[in-house]
Write a structure and sequence with these properties.
This protein is an all-alpha fold and 122 residues long. It has 8 helices and no strands.
């Protein structure tokens, strides 16, 4: 249901589009929530010129209020992620590689063996 509500209408099949339109007409609160979610997605994906503060203020008046409250607890990290060019992709790649090595050892990976395999992997 969430996918239907936030997807671009032109990407949906006719039955799905009809269902989504009817649902949003019948439940105006859901329409406001879906609109707020789309606005937030636009800001987070840097496809919108709106400010994060404006979008969060609007979203706080919908059923997304709990989500917004949690997001505001670490708003500096969210703003930094939107503004700074840094990425954690290299670290995430290494973590995935280490997890894969550990999985291949079928539970026999104590720290010493895992360290040896990671440090001497070809």
């Amino acid at each position: 249901m969430a996918r239907l509500l936030v997807a671009e209408p032109r990407t949906l099949s006719r039955p799905d589009r009809t269902f989504a339109v009817k649902l949003l007409e019948e439940v105006p609160e859901l329409a406001a929530t879906a609109a707020a979610a789309k606005r937030l997605e636009g800001v987070l994906r840097k496809k919108s010129d709106e400010t994060l503060a404006d979008v969060l203020a609007a979203a706080a008046r919908t059923h997304l209020s709990d989500f917004v409250a949690e997001l505001r607890k670490d708003i500096t990290a969210v703003e930094a992620a939107l503004c700074l060019p840094g990425t954690t992709s290299p670290a995430e790649g290494q973590i995935c590689r280490i997890k894969m090595i550990k999985r291949t050892m079928y539970g026999r990976a104590g720290f010493a063996l895992l360290r040896a395999r990671v440090m001497h992997a070809a």
